[in-house]
Fold:
Amino acid sequence: MKFILAILFMFQVFSASSQTDNFKSQDLTISEHIDGTLLELSNDKATNLAIIIAGSGPTDRNGNQNFMKSNSLKSLAEALTKHNIATFRYDKRVVKQILNGKVDPNIMFDDFVSDAQSIVDYFNEKNTYKNIIVIGHSQGSLVGMLASSKADAFISLAGAGQDISMVITEQVGKTAPFFIEETKRVFGVLKSGKTTTDYSPALASLFNIDLQPFMMNWMQYNPAEIISSLEIPVLIVNGTKDLQVSVEEAKLLNEALPTSEIVIINNMNHVLFTIDGDDLENAKSYNEGFRKINPELITTITTFIDKLNK
Structure:
């Protein structure tokens, strides 16, 4: 489990246009830190724009990390754009920082939220689209909730319903149950506002001292409480083959906001692929960019967005 992070801001925009198949693609620089891709159909004017927010880690606009190349967010964007929904997906700030060899050690979860809000503000100021929909995947679900005050709709994909300490503790309980009590203890220290170096080396990827301030910032948000305050249409989606975020998390979000729609997709995993086999196939799919996005997911999202126009 890796929880390295980053962000984005806004202002000056540089655009380079290109044509690919039936797509019109513009590379936008939203700030000195953040680059993204606006994708539209070449010959049609989209009414709706979906802003796609990635999950945890140094994730680029396509949903990839250095050793994990699923292209899931690129495939999601292209599938939605084929239905004439414009999409904007972006590299997290840490992606550019890594390339430049200057990673900011003081990144906070709140920075992610500010960056996402800046993107929403940018497109609102452009006033090009009737509806702006925020789509948050995994960690991006909570970021998206917090950034959706000026959006027209919100979609949670594989988003947690509990605070991150509870989600990680459950993950540890499933994969390494002998560390669950220590995990609870360390999270207890962090919740008290203190950092600690007193943990097993086996848990270093979770509790590295450099990441603890970020984790403490992240932990203060309870997704169920945040989503309950949204006054826009909300869609919650999870898959039955998700190894990281269970369908119970989606149900918690739906219970917190009864007006939301919830769809549980059979055999969809965390990176939005259809998995017919076992956990081994599931894990391998995280690095199989040739796979297609689950078709039911695309139907679910497009149907939800289409209703915004009525």
